[in-house]
Amino acid sequence: MKALRWFAGMAAVFAMAGAAVAQQPIKIGMSMPQTGGLGAGGKAALVAIRMWVEDVNARGGLLGRKVELTAYDDQSNPAMTPSLYTKLLDVDKVDLLIAPYATVPTAPIMPLVKQRDLLLMGNFSFQVNHTVKHDKWFNNAPWNNAASWFEGFFQAGQKAGAKTIAFLAADQEFAQNLANGAKELAKKGGLKTVYEQNYPPTTTDFSSLIRAVRASKPDLVFVASYPNDSVAIVRAVNEIGVGEGVKIFGGGMVGLQFTPIMESLGSLLNGIVNYNSYVPGMNYPGIEDFLQRYAKKAAAEKVDPLGFYLPPFNYAIGQMIEQAVTATKSLDHKVLADYLHKNEMKTIVGPIRYGADGEWANPRVVMGQFRGIADKNVEQFRQPGKQVILYPEAYKTGDVVVPFEKARK
Amino acid sequence: MPFSFELLLEAIVFGVLLGCFYAAVSIGLSVSFGLLDVPHVAHPAIMVFGAYCTWLLGRLGLDPVLAGVLLTPAFFLLGMAVYRFYYEVFEKRGSDAGVRGIAFFFGLALIIEVGLILAFGVDQRTVEAAYIGKSFSIGDMRIPMRTVVVTVVALVLMTVLTLYLSRTFTGRAIKAVAQDEQALRLMGANPMRIKQWAFGIATAVAAVAGAMLIIIGPVDPGMDRAYIGRTFSVVVLAGLGSMTGTIAAGLILGISESIVLMQFGASWAPAVSFSLLLIVLGIRPQGLFGR
């Protein structure tokens, strides 16, 4: 009888310990650029991920456990991300990982996750898995290869009868990947390259470069730039001009999707053809509700008030984790990766199906042309038509206006 | 890019404008590092702080140049306070003040950067003025008006400082403390107070330079890093403490960068400042205008 009591007591202790383990939160870890050049986008993206954490916890969490997010500031500095992710794994003991926003901070952590065979939810990176070929990588960005990015840009160029092209690209991983892809497409399309220039990320004034672009008299000007450069380039174009012969200007300018930058550039944006992830008028189930809720949070946290570019796709990361964990009832990275590879994800940015490389099987990069933008008016960007969708065909709202100088007016 | 005289001319004209901007952002450092021998690596950070203050005043409707000028008294006092602290904690204590001073000013730069991030966030800030975003044409050449404004301000700043240092009693005292601190002490003057005054002037000039910075383009809290190398190159190239030399060095740097950027490639442009510096130091260690 005494032994029976002892066993009963031990069983109770183990049951309580088990319950305690069950009560431990599921830890999700990431770094996010909250300062530095990518900070504006990163902070807005983080608001969206935290919204998902709140939502999923309000629904009772995952597998009956609360979800807890740890997000360190990587200062947009790629040198910091490997150590931050090592800390997340070895010190914080997180269960799941989300990548930081953008290519440059993400690229250095790819060898780490590949070596440890971990699931990594990508966050608007471009081709960081191209050479690593990690089978547990899943990017939330609506593209896969360079063709998916710029098919719209080059289609519009062909329609406009373009024969020559100039390339201007930042001398860093993301912009170089983009520009190299775009160069291949241009070659395939029979476009002659008349100017090609990489500029160092520390460049502050682009007047000389824009003069050189103008002197080369291209039909298309393809720019692959990061936020601060994009602003300086648009201003220099406004002052110096790129020449009457340029039909289309833009392509891969990061930053022209961020509200503070769009607001500050205002009418200078008119005529630019640039990529985007979402523009008003693209109706995905749930996105309107998300954007309304996001707008309130963004106002409180003083981040991008519109949040079209990154936040919905960051919320979608959470939705995908939720769908995979709920369906598999597991936190095992292999099990989750198998599920993500085989099933269609339902998100507020539409259905997502992944290819073998962890990029979207059916990319949906928007190529839009800014039209009728006035100065100092944030609210105008909520209206459909301020960025006319040229591509993809399924969402097309108009044709490109050329030449660039005419489209600017 | 094939060579053309038209492009070369444009590169030279823009190089002159760029050079004056480099001179404008280096003049304060020419005083603090060139004359006072203070390793003021926080100079660009103070400049960025000045740019943010200009932005704040710009929201009240003030012209950026006027805002920069109005900021000078406050920055003068700030500079005096910073130097006093540096003097008491580092300079007064011994021969390794230089090394520890660099650490102090790096720390100061970091504090300013983090403070700006906390106060204003990470977004870029811009100002508006009638001459920003506009350009005028000379033949086929279009010249941004903002660069002309910066050039004029740089020339005025240089003239005022040159006259102040050569014609006024305090100005001459500043030059004297740069030449022989001990001799000045024997004359009954207090070198610390003169250096404190001069550092105040350098910081006040940094406020105007900050206004130039935000006129040239958008600023963000981390922008100072891009200017540490360039400003020190200009000052050393000029010959420590030479105001005329600062303008000349700025012009040499601006024109060289502009030509290299346009004819050979933008990736080579940052290397220009340090290559020029090495060449000049090899041939003339005291700098172009140094004695």
Strand order of the largest sheet of chain B: 1-2
Overall number of domains of chain A: 2
| Proportion of residues in helical segments of chain B | over 70%
Strand content of chain A: 15-25%
Helix fraction of chain A?
Answer: 40-55%
Quaternary structure state of the chains depicted: heterodimer
How many strand elements of chain A? Answer: 14
| CATH architecture field of the largest domain in chain A | 3-Layer(aba) Sandwich
In short:
Helices cover 42% and strands 17% of the residues of chain A. Chain A has 409 residues and is α/β, with parallel strands linked by helices. Chain A has 2 domains: 9-144 and 284-352, Response regulator (Rossmann fold), CATH 3.40.50.2300; 146-281 and 365-408, Response regulator (Rossmann fold), CATH 3.40.50.
Spell out the blueprint of helices and strands.
The complex is a heterodimer of chains A (409) and B (291).
Chain A: H1 2-23, E1 26-32, H2 39-58, E2 67-73, H3 81-90, E3 96-98, H4 103-106, H5 110-116, E4 120-122, E5 137-139, H6 146-159, E6 164-170, H7 173-188, E7 192-199, H8 207-215, E8 220-225, H9 227-240, E9 248-253, H10 259-265, E10 273-276, H11 287-301, H12 311-328, H13 333-342, E11 345-347, E12 350-352, E13 366-370, E14 387-391, H14 404-408
Parallel strand pairs in A: 1-2, 1-3, 3-4, 4-5, 6-7, 6-8, 8-9, 9-10
Antiparallel strand pairs in A: 10-13, 11-12, 13-14
Helix pairs in contact in A: 2-11, 2-12, 6-7, 12-13
Chain B: H1 5-35, H2 43-58, H3 64-89, H4 97-120, E1 135-138, E2 141-144, H5 145-167, H6 169-179, H7 181-186, H8 191-216, H9 225-238, H10 243-263, H11 269-283
Antiparallel strand pairs in B: 1-2
Helix pairs in contact in B: 1-5, 1-8, 1-9, 1-10, 2-3, 2-4, 2-8, 3-8, 5-6, 5-8, 5-10, 6-8, 9-10, 9-11, 10-11
